[in-house]
Amino acid sequence: MKTFFSLIAALVVGCSSALAEQPILIRFSHVVAPDTPKGKAAEFFAKRAAELTRGAVKVEVYPNSTLYKDKEEMEALQLGAVQMLAPSLAKLAPLGFKEFELFDLPYIFDNMEMLHRVTDGEIGASLLARLEPKGIKGLAFWDNGFKSFSANRPLRKPADFKGLKIRIQPSKVLESQMRALGAVPMNMAFSDIYQAARTGIIDGAENPHSNFYTQKMYEVQKNITLTAHGYLGYAVITNRRFWDSLPSGTRHLLGQAIREATTYANRIAQEENDTALKKIIETGKTRVYTPTAAERAELKKLMLKTHAEMAPRIGKDIIDAIYKETGFDPARM
Question: Considering the entire predicted model, what is its pTM?
């Protein structure tokens, strides 16, 4: 009998030890393909988190909306069904953070250097801190890149956009941008774009080249115009209660993994988009057009009307702070 109880005790101790050694699980959900800048950065983060914590943290990455679509993932994070997301910045506005829509303003950033003055500085830190009352911890900004317009007809001047149904993310700013062009904004999930374009529900879209290529949009869009009119980036976020529950040492190491992943993500974003554009051209299925300086100036002047229209919604103060930080002066247009 003594031997029996000794055996039971040993099994209990062994099971307790095994449970104690179970790694902390982080489910990281996103809606794009694994071979996009965000997809690769998420995998890089998972690898570095495991290495830095020596296996104490396991990050499972779920790409391509395999867990949740655009409209579902934020609620899943707040409920704790997933621990990390990297939603596009426009998706934070429906939670009450309309100031994040400033990143959707067309032509507010002329290049990545201007953008990073904001995301890497005090303005960026202030924006992420505003998420906390909603139970969300902002960890970083990740680049994807500047967007181009695509459609089944050439897009060279404002008149070419008139009446086109163009897919957008949920964003009042993007709705305003499309109306300024005379187009019809079509709000839909990222995962639905290909089918919508194939069946004619939409006529066009706006995407960085990496998204255009990995979603095989070249099969259903005959033209792409390199407008670089808007920025697409992501906020890497986590459930605040989950984050605060982690041991301080683990949080420190995960913070390091995030910083490394951010450096990696922002470095490869331009490389991935350049490579994707070459592959789009190689397919021979989509004509690629680079606007002249005059054509770009005409589009820019028209689309800048969105800045003034959206200032009451986003906040004139924060838009002015962006202008000051980047040196942009819309009055010169």
Answer: 0.85
